[in-house]
Amino acid sequence: MKLDSRIPSGPIEQAWDKSRFDMKLVNPANKRKFSVIVVGSGLAGGSAAASLGELGYNVKCFCFQDSPRRAHSIAAQGGINAAKNYQNDGDSIYRLFYDTVKGGDFRAREYNVYRLAQNSVNIIDQCVAQGVPFAREYGGALANRSFGGAQVSRTFYARGQTGQQLLLGAYQALEAQVDAGSVKMYTRTEMLDLVIINGKARGIVTRNLVTGQIESHAADAVILATGGYGNVFYLSTNAKGSNCTAIWRAHKRGAAFANPCFTQIHPTCIPVSGDYQSKLTLMSESLRNDGRIWVPLKGGDKRAPSQIPENERDYYLERRYPSFGNLVPRDVASRAAKAVCDEGRGVGETGLGVYLDFADSINRLGRSAIEERYGNLFEMYNRITGEDPYTAPMRIYPAIHYTMGGLWVDYQLMSTIPGMFVLGEANFSDHGANRLGASALMQGLSDGYFVIPYTLGNYLASNKLEKVDTSAPEFAAVTKEVNDLVAQMLSIKGKRTVSSYHRELGKIMWDNCGMGRNAAGLSNAITQIQGLRHEFWNNVNVPGSGEDLNQQLENAGRVADFLELGELMCRDALHRNESCGGHFREEYQTEEGEAMRDDENFQYAAAWEYAGQDTEPILNKEPLAFDYVHPAQRSYK
Amino acid sequence: MKPASMNLTLHVWRQANAAAPGRMERYDAPNVSEDMSFLEMLDVVNEQLISDGKEPIAFEHDCREGICGSCGFMVNGVAHGPQKGTTICQLHMRHFKDGEELFLEPWRATAFPVLKDLVVDRAAFDRIIAAGGYVSVRTGSAPDGNAISVPKEAADIAMDAAACIGCGACVAACPNAAAALFTGAKISHLGTLPQGQAERSRRALRMVEQLSLEQFGSCTNIGECVAACPKQIPLEMIARMNRDHLKAAWTSRGEHRSGGE
Amino acid sequence: MAATGAALYLFVTVHLLGNLQVFLGPDAINHYAAALKSVPEILWGARLGLLACVGLHILTTVQLARINNKARPTAYAKKANSASTAASRTMYLSGPTIAAFIVYHLLHLTVGSAHPQFSETDVYSNMVFGFRVWWVSAAYIIAMALLCTHLRHGVQSMFQSLGFNHPKHSPRIQKFANAVGILYFAGFASMPLAALTGILPPFFERL
Ligand SMILES: Cc1cc2nc3c(=O)[nH]c(=O)nc-3n(C[C@H](O)[C@H](O)[C@H](O)COP(=O)(O)OP(=O)(O)OC[C@H]3O[C@@H](n4cnc5c(N)ncnc54)[C@H](O)[C@@H]3O)c2cc1C
Ligand code: HEM
Ligand code: SF4
Ligand code: FES
Questions:
Q1: Is B3 exposed, middle or buried (0-12, 13-18, 19+ CB in 10 A)?
Q2: Is the residue at A226 inside a domain?
Q3: Residue B14 β-bridge partners
Q4: Residue B255's pLDDT is what?
Q5: Which domain holds residue C26?
Q6: Among residues 165-184 of chain A, which lie with CB inside 8 Å of chain B?
């Protein structure tokens, strides 16, 4: 497999302008003649579908929820970065670029990141114009807050509901296009496979989740914006429905999967409370602006937090990282929490938790200031735990949150399958081995509003696309495969429920491919997953029929894919003999326990190629060049 | 102190599909931990049903964080259950007592047909937004974000309104099955901001017209919606909608219908 | 509905003030009544206007009820009320009762066919003798209580329908409206009560 990243030549500052100029354009009158499928209605898919519809393309947009507004982007709390420098604190496009490349631990493509930083500025303008109610100062100007991994205040936010407001902006733009007739929305419709004709992506096969109907849709190009695959861990901060099915099935049809093991663990989530636990809830990272993280100095200290005097507390982040303190990047904060818990200093019933304490801030700023900033998060914490974070510190623990890996795409966001583009969290493009807070929203919207409208046009204008409709034999063949798969799952009628497999897979992944990884554990995990997958296909119990709304069947398909993806993640983690960003191999750490990168051997994106069921995948490498930000050990001391 | 674990009896509306008749069925929910969320309690009941060879109860959910608006059904006649300002996915079992009987029913409204068990079709909400719940701004054509200053107070009111998650509890709780709170929230959100002014009249006219096309009921200002709303959208948002609508209806020259292509 | 409701509210206010003149003695109220009747154009204009208001109000109510019944054809097996006032939930009960009352009221004190001792000119005596029958007074008092609950929700609803709701002012308006409701009730109820207890003395006996 040849990986042509199509990175433009010349200085990075002009690269995007230049490549936009070099791209071919579709004549306005001809746009109507092109049809585009957008799978996903989150920030990436929603913004893409709306913008493409507005340009005049014939767009079909799909999501599995009952409304495009419910895509998982809705859950993002903290904010979105942009290099506006409204705070006059020294921010610039270059600094955002620099921070993101460094934050990604030198495993992202520089040119993509630079473009992202450039687009960040337009995103804010666009969203404000759509009526996104960003937080304002009394003077009427936009307000900012700071976020982990940055020393400037560049994060824009709408209370603790930034993702919701940005998504509603994109959703409303999308519905405006639905009203205008340029976008047709297919809700409660799940993409189950990709159809390739003459080497190009030409359509998808879907299941109507209400009627069970398997349907075909043809188009001139297919865009996947189906979000991340963090739910491979079962417990994560992702929505229950978040899945890898679309990208995984596209992977099996030839799209390379890049850096699957790069997953992000978020340091501030509410700890697990019991084995019925169905998901983990994030407490926005922004809390770290005003909360101080600590554990008791001595292990096994079971006193209530208020009984532990100041000198018997260990504010370990402030101690270890004096210049960033509680605002170190996520991977660093998460590992530090795991370390203190491993030492037996964790708090709460399970010992898997650390305190996030607001007492100092409440004393300094007053309760009402804290309430204004974090009121809804505090309420959420109280609802879930029954505890009051105004009077007792929160207990938090890291949880799986984001997947930096995803389908490999070139600079124009096209996958290794011509005509199939991948946007948002579903691709691997911009965050390297670790994502900085508030930059996923930025990436999703940059991809959807400001990149795909150009690069898709370029593809359509520079390729000769024959007329294709769903009567093509390729559609029939894929439809048959999909039907067979559904029928097979329903026919096993074994003894174990779908979610019991999912839980077990999640535990294998968390124990072996989570915050700390090592060769022995990963090899072991691969074997375990293979065994579990085998058992699944022989002993799973999927009740009901395929002809109506069947949530167990939906879930079974997703878990089946996770059972394959999990193995690939472990393989990727096993092959990468270095520690970088969210990928921490215990064998590769400095004496102080910091990640040790190996730039000589691993300065590349690992793009895995599917080689067939139960066959080892093929590794392709895209070497990464760092001409602007020079790799150094990340230091947040 | 109440026991950490309790036994509950559930009466759940079971309906195979939109066309089939439905009925209430009784289930036991034993050993419910008070730290479980309501949906986790149902997960456990469902796992048992599957193991017993029965069909699990279908209910909608996704984020389980109270933000996506997927979840929602009636618990003892109250939308999203007894805790104020809380979606059913965020409701935890510590709010119930050992031995309680709980009646679970889907949202009921002509505009929200039941698809299965506790799952209803809320596509009408999308069509209401499509009828004008947006600001038309071409991608890339926006002025600088700080070009138009927005008073903090306006931004705050807009945000209060925009917090709506589109769950439909307001419709479910309303004796008239009206969607005034949902629609009022969107009209208020956009109508409060300077960016939303150009389309303010057209928006109010078209969205309110869509309300009746979807066969929602008419608001009689009773306030059950506000009590049920997990985001506590205030009744004021309905007044704002009425104000915009009255004003628009009075000044309209009748071109608002020209939506679509 | 808000407009007709408001017009009726206005009428109720004027009507109450007019009626309360009964306490100023027979002359005051009888002169007032005579003055009203002296210009038939105005009298009939007002009557027709009122009739139209009541008619339209009822008509819109019927339309509203039709829409709202269609909007929820299947009732809940269990439904709890969380926030609404009893007044707001009983509008469909208080309204028609008031309508029935109005018919009776017209026959009783305007046309006189439901009044055994009716006089065309002596409004004072019509009221005093009419109210001396205990069940007539009781009917009036109950109807007035219902009218006030109807208005309690009606006023709030009207402001809301007309687009006025402000977190600072609305609670005050509602408090004011509630106080006015109670005052109206007290005002209206005072007349039958006064007649029953003999506080309002008969002007002269008639056969
Ligand atoms: C709790 C939480 C908080 C976060 N907070 C922040 C933050 O503060 N700042 C930040 O920058 N980032 C944050 N993130 C990350 C960020 O929200 C996501 O990375 C981003 O929103 C992903 O957007 P997306 O458009 O790529 O995918 P999504 O929003 O996940 O959308 C996926 C879409 O694809 C559809 N879909 C998926 N599979 C299929 C299929 N097979 N068929 C049809 N449709 C399908 C879904 O229906 C959905 O519409 C947060 C993430 C979480 C979990
Ligand atoms: C004649 C019989 C009457 C009937 C059947 C009736 C019925 C109703 C109903 C069903 C409503 C709307 C319900 C709601 O908003 O919850 C209403 C509203 C109202 N009614 Fe009546 N009513 C009657 C008489 C009156 C009278 C006599 C008055 C005043 C003197 C009055 C004043 C009002 C007002 C102010 C409203 C509020 C209007 C709005 O919100 O738009 N009604 N009525
Ligand atoms: S107004 Fe409240 S109850 Fe109604 S849809 Fe919005 S969030 Fe749900
Ligand atoms: S599941 Fe998302 S709001 Fe309840």
A1: exposed
A2: no
A3: B23
A4: 59
A5: 2-70+91-206
A6: 165, 168, 171-173, 175-176, 178-181
| Domain co-membership, A514 together with A376 | no
Measure A563 CA to ligand 1 centroid, in angstroms: 21
| A183 in a structural domain | no
**How far lies A354's CA from each of A267, A292, A338, A413, B65, in Å?**
10, 10, 9, 40, 21
User: Which numeric CATH code is attached to B5-115?
Assistant: 3.10.20.30
Q: Which atom of ligand 2 lies closest to the CA of C6?
A: 35
- Pick from B187, B206, B185, B184: which is nearest to B196 by CA? B187
The hierarchical CATH code for the domain B123-251 is: 1.10.1060.10
Percent residues over pLDDT 90 in chain C? 71
- Examine the domain organization and report whether A487 and A394 are in the same domain: no
- Is A368 within a domain? yes
With a cut of 70, list the residues of chain A below it in pLDDT: none
How many structural domains are present in chain A?
2
Query: Which residue's CA lies nearest to atom 3 of ligand 4?
Result: B66
Confidence band for B254, pLDDT divided at 50, 70 and 90: low
Residues A565-574 pLDDT 10s: 999 999 999 9
Residues 6+ apart with CB under 8 A from C119: C112, C125, C126, C206
Mean pLDDT for all residues in chain C: 91
Residue A497 pairs in a beta bridge with A541
Binding site membership of A227 for ligand 1 (Cβ less than 6 Å): yes
Residues A279 and A389 in one domain: yes
Q: Which residue in C has a C-alpha nearest to residue B21's C-alpha?
A: C74
How confident is the model at residue A65, as a pLDDT?
98
Reported in sequence order, the residue ranges of A419-567 that DSSP labels E, i.e. its strands, are 420-422, 496-497, 540-541
- Interchain CB distance below 8 Å, A549 and B17: yes
- Check if A309 contacts B (Cβ < 8 Å): no
Given A366, A401, A436, which residue is the final one in a domain? A401
What is the spatial distance between Cα B202 and Cα B187, in angstroms, rounded to a whole number? Answer: 11
Q: Determine phi and psi for C136, rounding to 5 degrees.
A: -65, -45
Q: Which domain, by its residues, includes A397? A: 265-401
**Cβ of A548 and B94 within 8 Å?**
no
- Residue C135 falls inside a structural domain: yes
Identify all chain C residues contacting B178, using CB atoms and an 8 Å cutoff: 68, 71
Question: Residue A146: what pLDDT?
Answer: 84
A479 and A604 housed in the same domain: yes
Nearest CA, atom 28, ligand 2: C8
The whole-angstrom separation of Cα A130 and Cα A457 is 24
Burial C85-97 (b: 16+ CB within 10 A, else e): eebbbebeebbeb
Residue nearest to atom 5 of ligand 1 (CA): A76
A330 catalytic, yes or no?
Answer: yes
Q: Say if B260 is an interface residue toward chain A (CB within 8 Å).
A: yes
Atom of ligand 4 nearest to the CA of B230: 3
Q: Please tell me the residue having the least CA distance from ligand 3 atom 5.
A: B166
Residue at A441 is within a domain: no
C-alpha closest to that of B97 among B230, B13, B1, B25: B1
SS3 content of chain A, % helix, strand, coil (to 5): 40, 15, 40
All residues of chain B having their beta carbon less than 8 Å from the beta carbon of residue A160 are none
Q: Residue range C17-44: average pLDDT?
A: 91
Helices (DSSP H) in chain C: which residue ranges? 2-20, 26-38, 40-71, 86-89, 91-105, 123-132, 134-161, 169-197
Quick check: do B5-115 and B123-251 share a fold?
no
Q: CA A361 to CA A380: how far, in whole Å?
A: 19
CA distance B71 to B124: 16
Pairs of residues, one from chain A and one from chain B, whose beta carbons lie less than 8 Å apart: 229
C32 falls within a domain: yes
| Total domains present in chain C | 1
- Please name which of C58, C46, C63, C41 lies closest in space to residue C4, comparing C-alpha atoms: C58
* pLDDT confidence band for B256 (50 / 70 / 90): low
